[in-house]
Amino acid sequence: MPLLEIENLHASIGDKPILKGITLTINPTEIHAIMGPNGSGKSTLSYVLAGREGYEVTDGDIRLDGVSVLDMEADERARAGLFLAFQYPVELPGVGGMSFLRGAVNARRIANGEEEIDHIAFVKTVREAAASLGIKDDMLKRAVNVGFSGGEKKRYEILQMALLEPRMAILDETDSGLDVDALRIVSEGVNALKKDDMGVLVITHYQRLLDYIIPDHVHILADGRIVKSGDKSLALEVEKSGYGDFTNAA
Amino acid sequence: MPHESMSFDHLSAAAAKRHEQNGWPGSRDEAWRFTNLNEIKALSLTPAKRPDSHAFSEDKNLIHFINGVAQNTDNISINGVRIAPLNADSELTTALADAVPHPHSVADFALAHAHDGMAMTVSGQVDTPLMFRFAYEGDGISSHPVVVVDIKPGSSVTILEEHLGSGAGLSAPLMLYRLGEGAHLHHARRLVEDESRYHLGLNLVQLNAKACYHGDMVMSGGAISRSETQVRISAPDAEAYLNAVYLGRHDQMRDVTSRIDHDAPDGQSFQRIHGILDDRAKAVFQGKVKVARYAQKTDGNQMSRTLILSRQAEANTKPELEIYADDVTCSHGATIGEIDADQLFYLKSRGISDEDARQLLIEAFLVDVIDELGDPQRDWLMAAIQSWIKVR
Amino acid sequence: MSATAETVRQVEEATGKYKYGFITDIEVDKAPIGLSEDTIRFISAKKEEPEWMLEWRLKAYRNWLKMEEPDWAMLEHPPIDYQDIYYYAAPKQADQPKSLDEVDPELLRTYEKLGIPLHEQEILAGVAVDAVFDSVSVATTFRAKLAESGVIFCPISEAIKTHPDLVQKYIGSVVPQGDNYFSALNSAVFTDGSFVYIPKGVRCPMELSTYFRINERNTGQFERTLIIAEEGSYVSYLEGCTAPQRDENQLHAAVVELIAHDDAEIKYSTVQNWYPGDETGKGGIYNFVTKRGACRGARSKISWTQVETGSAITWKYPSCILQGEGSVGEFYSVAVTNNAQQADTGTKMIHIGANTTSTIISKGISAGRSNNTYRGLVRMMPGAENARNFTQCDSLLVGDQCGAHTVPYITSKNPSAKVEHEATTSRISEDQLFYCLQRGMNTEDAVSLIVNGFCKEVMKELPMEFAVEAQKLIGISLEGSVG
Fold it and tell me: Which residue in C has a C-alpha nearest to residue B303's C-alpha?
């Protein structure tokens, strides 16, 4: 069964249509990349998938493991296994990192009928996962995203992904604001997590992230529609000749 | 003008006269424009009698005040702490007379009706935190504790002050904390009276050179609660930190008023006030920082944030700067709004339910103010916050 | 650096002191000194007003008698003797001039000296001017051209006669007579001011401008301005003010009312340069002004920009009532005080409608022994769903004998509304000053330069023609403030 099915998805902000009929199917273990110029609807797509308020789905459907998520709130979708790594992770002053991570993991476990995780075991798990992503202990003690550098925020997103073990991960411009080293660490993190049957949707403006997270399929988004799909060579084509050809086609 | 040596009875009589003349303020009085006292005026209050029985406590560091009168002061034996009736300490009585702004309706009311006050002197480093527990009771009864704490130069102490009790009466505490050169005071307060009570308090702080006052308050009780803090920095290099959390629900009124007078150079003041209002609650934070002409190199900073959780609640903020010295860095910021939608979405996208996410953000918003406190103040204040949140 | 060089040059050019302090020697027609119902009848008769206008004035006067002068502002002045003021003074001339050729040449020369030539061919292209001299409008330019697009721009005294329906409908509808002590006084004795009406869908083809001049001794100026922007229209209006240098204080109590209907926009800019008094605080204008705009229509917008450098006392809070859904209010202010000047100025933003937004940017500069207060109010009413306010309020102290104060009032009765307020107070940094001095500027020029930088966010809101004048004024106002 397909993991994520996006079918003829139309979405608007207020009266303004942004997504104008997107159809895309992602199977377990597949990595898909969506590329597109600024304003093509990339971030809107990630928010609509994650269920952010203020975006109205006017037509079409989104199904996770065959079940429509349109009537689910953002937290229900997350507990069903949908994970969004934010382009701009928001700061949560006063919200301690550990209690946040534990809260998120336990919410998922309770929803799945599992027991809450043991404190000590959890701290150990977090420390190990953090270490492999180059996240210092000190960062875990701080409030969520507060005072983090751009790179630190992105690593922290991947850490959450590791702990929440989603079915389907959406990476929204995860490469923006990262230097080469950070990019490598983050990508390794993603690739390491991919061992099971997780699906990944990488949303990016530039090709360079795709050197590290190698996609099975690449789609070009322009003016709210997928105008071309292909394999990873399509990304290289974009790199060489830009988006001009595709946006004209739209 | 400093007073000549003054007795408590004399001070009390002068205050009674002023209160008789001025009464309680109305909404045209700028300092009271947001807090309507009609309910309190309608109470027909009788001043609390001196209690017959003495309550005893095993704690060597706890002073119990019943309806304003200290009970077990003989029991306290801590090195460096001396306690006496205010009437027997003319120096501190005179200090109080000098410190009290007048006319001031709360101070005048408290002084007019108090039988006596408590004078406490602290010398040296007192490591055990002291606790003042003010218990009030009785419908139509007003209580007026008057306390002067004199912290000698170079001394330091932690004082936890708690106000609790029930009955549709008025608590009107008047406190003066006088810090000598280089003295330190950690002052944590919980205002957790029952919803039937009214609380109008005046907290005066005087800072000598290099003194440091750290005041933290959680206000969650009372039908109408007002806490006014006035800090006077009268010698160079002193520091004042005022952190406050106010919590209102139902038809409660919350009033946090502060005034910091920088009368000497190189002083610093930092204020952080966070409030949450639910149901039909109303609140005001009004804070004034005044920097006198010769108080150069003053650093004055104030931040107030209010979260409104209900459509019927009302938040008011009036942060005020009055500055007469040029080489200063003063600022204030104020925000009023609801829970941030981006933060809420972020938490929900991690699978946390709407209700839990809101709870988490509310707690974080409040904890932010007291997070850097050491123990025992932090846990003690946190408990008051959590018991308020739990009822939601 | 060219703009900077320009400022420096202009500051140098000005010989210091108040440049507009001269007196025009002209024969005048005056009401008897003092205020009574007779004075009001005199003014109304002089203006040949209809009966309803006189009645309206008398009602305001009777109301005023019962009111008390407000004392909440951080201002100190000796009591004003309202019986020692002339409430009407007008240059003598046979009839209302029909064209500029009929205007007394002495008056035209006065405005030329003030830098406001009234001859249309000499005026900066695209600005129509109404020149108000003491109690009367002496000339209004470009009226014919404006009439072509249906825009009415004339003295209010004339509009009362020619457009009584409009005046009657709107006057006092934004600032009610009894709103405050000075608005009641103005409603009783106002003498002239401008009336502007922009019809539906019209973008006013040029900037409109009124230039106020107080000339006569012991005379109060009580102008009244009314601007109505119909659906989808736009107008930019500028006002300037000067007065002679005199030892006595003179009273100026104006009322300005703006009404913006659906999708209309009014941009109102002021450069206030009334005589501020001398270094010792002698003389100067008492400026008590009520300015308020009503954003009645959906998506309407009212924007106030003010540069306040003059007056001994300024008491003024240009405000917006944001009633229409999605309406927008803006307040951009620079207030400079020096010597013994006192200013208590700010704004009120009352959010009534949903999705209304307001922005307040205030820059206060205090020098000498002056006191400068920002006083503002932001109120979110229960219906102000998703309304937004942002306030930034900065004060700069020049010297250690002055005061800078900030008194904001914020109230919210709607949880979805968001209010953000920031304020700072500081002085010119030694580093900035040293940097400029090291580049060869003298202290005064450096201060003027830095202060103008501090005010930039506000200055860029001014129409081009005014921005240069305003920048120059700030430099001049601060002269002598640094040793």
Answer: C422
Interface A–B counts its CB contacts (< 8 A) at 78
Model pLDDT for residues B334-360, shown as the tens digit of each residue: 999 999 999 999 999 999 999 999 999
Query: Per the CB < 8 Å rule, is B346 touching A90?
Result: yes
Establish if B2 touches chain A: CB-CB under 8 angstroms.
Answer: no
Residue C269, pLDDT above cutoff 60? yes
Is C419 a member of any domain?
A: yes
Q: How many structural domains does chain C have?
A: 1
Mean confidence (pLDDT) of chain B: 93
Contact yes or no for B345 and A74 at CB 8 A = yes
Q: How far is C419 from chain B (nearest CA, A)?
A: 5
Q: What is the pLDDT of residue A247?
A: 67
Q: Which two tokens stand for residue B3?
A: 């007073």
Cβ neighbours of B301 in C, within 8 Å: none
Touching A (3+ Cβ pairs <8 A), the chains are B
Residue C482 lies in a domain: no
pLDDT (tens digit per residue) in A21-55: 999 999 999 999 999 888 889 989 999 999 888 89
Interface pTM, i.e. ipTM: 0.89
Is residue C1 exposed (0-12), middle (13-18) or buried (19+ Cβ within 10 Å)?
Answer: exposed
Confidence at residue C118, expressed as pLDDT on a 0 to 100 scale: 66
Q: Look at domain A4-95+148-249 and name its CATH class.
A: alpha beta
Chain B partners of C421 at a C-beta cutoff of 8 Å?
A: 317, 319, 332-335
Identify all chain B residues contacting C72, using CB atoms and an 8 Å cutoff: 30
Q: What is the 3-state secondary structure (H, E, C) of chain B?
A: CCCCCCCHHHHHHHHHHHHHHHCCCCCCCHHHCCCCCHHHHCCCCEECCCCCCCCCCCCCCEEEEECCEECCHHHCCCCCEEEEEHHHCHHHHHHHHHHCCCCCHHHHHHHHHCCCCEEEEECCECCCCEEEEEEECCCCEEECCEEEEEECCCCEEEEEEEEEECCCCEECCEEEEEECCCCEEEEEEEECCCCCCEEEEEEEEEECCCCEEEEEEEECCCCEEEEEEEEEECCCCCEEEEEEEEEECCCCEEEEEEEEEECCCCCEEEEEEEEEECCCCEEEEEEEEEECCCCCCCEEEEEEEEEECCCCCEEEEEEEEEECCCCCEEEEEEEEECCCHHHHHHHHCCCCCHHHHHHHHHHHHHHHHHCCCCCCHHHHHHHHHHHHHHCC
Contact B364 A143 (CB under 8 A): yes
Residues B30, C72: C-beta atoms closer than 8 Å:
yes
Q: Does C71 touch chain B (CB under 8 A)?
A: no
The predicted structure's pLDDT at residue C98: 62
Q: What is the pLDDT of residues C69-113, one digit of tens each?
A: 999 999 999 999 999 988 988 877 655 566 666 677 777 777 676
pLDDT at C263: 98
Whole-prediction pTM value?
A: 0.86
Question: C389 CA to chain B: closest CA distance, Å?
Answer: 10
Q: Please check the confidence at residue C483 and state whether its pLDDT lies above 90.
A: no
Range of the domain at C435: 2-477
Chains contacting chain C through 3 or more C-beta pairs under 8 A:
B
Give how far C26 is from chain B: nearest CA, Å. Answer: 44
Range scoring the smallest mean pLDDT among A110-124, B213-227, C350-364, C446-460:
C446-460
Which among C395, C400, C411 is the nearest to B316, CB-wise? Answer: C411
Q: Which residues of A touch B341 (CB under 8 A)?
A: 53
Answer whether A98 touches B (CB < 8 Å).
no
Domain ranges of chain B: 8-338
Contact B368 A75 (CB under 8 A): no
C426 touches chain B (CB under 8 A): yes
Instruction: For residues C418-440, give the mean pLDDT.
Output: 82
